[in-house]
Amino acid sequence: MSKTRLNLSLDQDLVDFIKTFSAENRLSIADIVTQYFLALQRQEEEAAQKRLLAHPAFYQAMNAVQTRLKDGSAEWHSFEEVFGG
To answer: What percent of the chain lies above the pLDDT cut of 70?
Structure first.
């Protein structure tokens, strides 16, 4: 993935802490910031997934599919039938 520049303005005491922390842990500041935002992104994606899984319509659809699979009434289609080909 290509990189792009992001400029941040932070309090000096926070910048001093980040520089010390990064030096002590042999990490670049970019690594620290990237890991923070990746964790934030994963947290948001997990929350969205939990909302989907908790939705009553999704739950009903999953139960219906499981029932059809268990009782053998599921109708199977080839890849070509579903996606054309």
So the answer is: 99
